[in-house]
TrEMBL record:
It holds the Pfam family Aldedh. Its EC number is 1.2.1.8. This is Betaine-aldehyde dehydrogenase. The keyword Transport does not apply. InterPro entries: Ald_DH/histidinol_DH (IPR016161), Ald_DH_C (IPR016163), Ald_DH_CS_CYS (IPR016160), Ald_DH_CS_GLU (IPR029510), Ald_DH_N (IPR016162), Aldehyde_DH_dom (IPR015590), BADH (IPR011264). Keywords: Metal-binding, NAD, Oxidation, Oxidoreductase, Potassium. The keyword Ribonucleoprotein does not apply. The active site is at E252. GO terms for molecular function: betaine-aldehyde dehydrogenase (NAD+) activity. Residues 18-475 form the Aldehyde dehydrogenase domain. Belongs to the aldehyde dehydrogenase family. It comes from Pseudohalocynthiibacter aestuariivivens. The gene is betB. Gene3D superfamilies: Aldehyde Dehydrogenase, Chain A, domain 1, Aldehyde Dehydrogenase, Chain A, domain 2.
Amino acid sequence: MNYNAQPKASHFINGAYIEDTSGAPIKVIYPASGEVIATLHSATPDIVDKALAAAKSAQGAWAALSGTERGRVLRRAADIIRERNRDLSILETLDTGKPLQETLVADATSGADALEYFGGIAGSLTGEHIPLSGGDFVYTVREALGLCVGIGAWNYPTQIACWKAAPALACGNTMVFKPSETTPLSALKVAEILIEAGAPKGIFNVVQGYGDVGSSLVTDPRVAKVSLTGSVPTGRKVYAAAADGMKHVTMELGGKSPMIIFDDASLENAVSGAILGNFYSSGQVCSNGTRVFVQKGIKEAFLKRLSERLATAVIGDPLDEATSFGPLVSENQLNIVKGYIAKGLNEGARLVFGGNQLNKLGFYLEPTVFADVTDGMTIAREEIFGPVMSVLDFEDEVEVIARANDTEFGLSAGVFTNDLTRAHRVIGKLEAGSCFINTYNLAPVEAPFGGSKMSGVGRENSKNAVNHYSELRSVYVSMNDVEAPY
Ligand SMILES: NC(=O)c1ccc[n+]([C@@H]2O[C@H](COP(=O)([O-])OP(=O)(O)OC[C@H]3O[C@@H](n4cnc5c(N)ncnc54)[C@H](O)[C@@H]3O)[C@@H](O)[C@H]2O)c1
């Protein structure tokens, strides 16, 4: 097949596409075939400056609109995204290799949810009145931070762009967004659609580039806030650079999350949760529960049922809606994951399912399950970001909580049990930001999403995200004479 996903130009600044071919080339590769489907160019310093200048100059007028007016633009953009869901989903599939079956329901639609939700609350972002003695009072004003930078990972390109843009714009900020160099296409569509929805020019700009472009955005003195979705090593660098300029940050980073399955759990639900938490998007999901602790009593039944169900996964052409499991995003990611599978075998884990690259074009790897994994093995400690599940045995609750928390990460955690009090007791002791009882990996826009420990700072989605994209000014008003000591 010959797919062409070439956009009009690499960047979208001040309401229009713009190109500068002197920037380093960025080749967009369709993961299911390895073919180049578009070539873009990394932003030059001049392009970066144009984007920041456009966002900076648009911010005052955007913030001066009422929240209701800003919200109307976001809600219109959400409607357009939903109308074009199929085209946007196909583009997302070409960019990421994720099956269309997934992108139709979890990518552009999730972006639309965020625009709709934050568009809906934009008009009610207010301060408060605080009465004091003698009739004095303080009122607070919720103000935008200013120019925000968003930097994305490659696994959910549309969703990440919208999860950052929606709360930022609702609060009256403007944004320069840099997608991952691996998946640069769909953020441009979000920028185009916002303009079509009536957004003023310059409030949402997209520049392409590698880490150096991200770094030049983070260090620019015009920038008030940086929101990154990426790995912990990148997060460390970006957080440090932002701290130097005392900028606000949101860090959505990696994980190695535990999923604990007690022997009284519904086996079928636990297997479903483990599948969702390990193999959706070919395992390239930050919140995945890749350390699956299974109580000894149901271990073999769990492995048997899991293998039976994995054998029914339809691996193949991501554009075929019957396909439920696609390739990894890139050859590089395929090699990283294959390296982890080799380590699992070398360190003595038992391969229960998969483990092989598929003998076909594209970056396909079978869903892979290791059992008898112990806490010290590399595959139980490091984020793999691919379709590799580690099953660990446990005997009792106290033991499994301590082992589940023995990690530097703290993004997600899940518990499967039919014992109501145990479910809440255990989840209350797990060190993670996004937790699940008897399900896994759902991320509705209404709920806060984000990690603790090394997995991140701040929360996306929910009303809480507003606190990360605005700050309060307080105004003390005296109704009395001013008393001074002399
Ligand atoms: N917590 C979450 O919400 C979430 C969601 C998706 C992915 N992730 C994480 O993202 C990682 C996978 O994505 P990735 O490989 O694209 O991550 P990455 O850290 O390699 O890159 C993320 C982004 O940062 C940019 N970047 C790299 N160096 C930079 C620098 N010095 N300054 C500024 N920007 C820089 C990259 O160009 C890219 O756009 C995984 O660790 C995954 O867990 C987290």
